[in-house]
């Protein structure tokens, strides 16, 4: 299948269930957001913020993007497992698919909507929370091709995610991509209202 690598815009062959992005106009969720080649094109992704309630403070699972560009970056580089919508795909379906592609685990349980945030580059991210637990050291991510070094014409294959880790809400904040910290605040509100 063709999957848009979350951190660099190169199409690559993947081995999970069929998912195709069309070139030119892309239908995202319920409507067209524009052409990839037009100035008005807005990328729209969906993802899942997994949380666990062990001990006094909730913990969240974040993932770190793979590839040489991200290799030595820690501050504001971790993210929820997320990716772009497929043609006609709902936000919920995209979030579940992307979580599985980036971690090798299919989330189970109730998805709680956390809303939408806009990242610095203009990408819109719709997120859901789900309670769960997985061994972050055993994740298995799909791969994608990226041009490296930039503008070299040379493609290398890298994992979309090179590692995952559990963080407290306070500890995860400085590592979280700035445009997604909104989801930590929404999770705090959600947890106050859970039975």
Tell me briefly what this model is:
The chain is an alpha+beta fold and 195 residues long.
Account of the 3D structure:
The protein is an alpha+beta fold and 195 residues long. The protein has a single domain (2-193), classed as Alpha-Beta Complex (Nucleoside Triphosphate Pyrophosphohydrolase). The chain is built from three helices and twelve strands, in the order βββββββαβββββαα. The strands form four sheets. Strands 5, 6, 7, 8, 9 and 12 form a six-stranded mixed beta sheet that branches. Strands 1-2 form a two-stranded antiparallel ribbon. Strand 10 (143-147) and strand 11 (155-159) form a beta hairpin. The N and C termini lie far apart (41 Å).
Count of beta strands: 12
Number of helices: 3
Task: Give the helix proportion (percent range).
Answer: 10-25%
In the CATH scheme, the class would be Alpha Beta
Oligomer: single chain
> In terms of structural class, how would the helical and strand content be classed?
alpha+beta
Assign the CATH superfamily.
Nucleoside Triphosphate Pyrophosphohydrolase
Q: How many domains, as an integer?
A: 1
Instruction: Please tell me how large the radius of gyration is.
Output: 16 Å
| Average predicted confidence as pLDDT | 80
Shape verdict: globular
SSE pattern, N- to C-terminal: EEEEEEEHEEEEEHH
The CATH architecture can be named as Alpha-Beta Complex
Distance between the termini: 41 Å
Main sheet characteristics: 6 strands, mixed
| Uncertain stretches of 5 or more adjacent residues | 1-38
Bin the strand percentage. Answer: 25-35%
CATH topology: Nucleoside Triphosphate Pyrophosphohydrolase
């Amino acid at each position: 299948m063709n999957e848009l690598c979350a951190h660099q815009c190169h199409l690559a062959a993947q081995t999970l269930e069929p998912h195709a992005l069309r070139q030119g106009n892309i239908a995202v969720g319920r409507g067209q957001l524009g052409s990839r080649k037009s100035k008005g094109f807005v990328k729209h992704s969906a993802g899942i913020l997994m949380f666990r309630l062990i001990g006094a403070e909730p913990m969240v699972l974040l993932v770190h993007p793979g590839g040489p560009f991200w290799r030595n970056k820690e501050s504001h580089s971790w993210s929820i497992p997320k990716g772009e919508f497929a043609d006609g795909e709902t936000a919920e379906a995209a979030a579940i698919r992307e979580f599985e592609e980036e971690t090798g685990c299919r989330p189970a349980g109730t998805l709680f909507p956390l809303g939408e945030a806009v990242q610095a580059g203009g990408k819109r991210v719709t997120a859901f929370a789900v309670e769960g637990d997985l061994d972050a050291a055993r994740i298995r991510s799909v791969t994608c091709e990226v041009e490296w070094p930039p503008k070299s014409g040379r493609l290398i294959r890298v994992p979309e995610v090179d590692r995952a880790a559990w963080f407290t809400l306070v500890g995860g904040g400085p590592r979280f991509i700035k445009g997604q910290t909104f989801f930590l605040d929404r999770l705090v509100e959600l947890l106050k209202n859970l039975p």
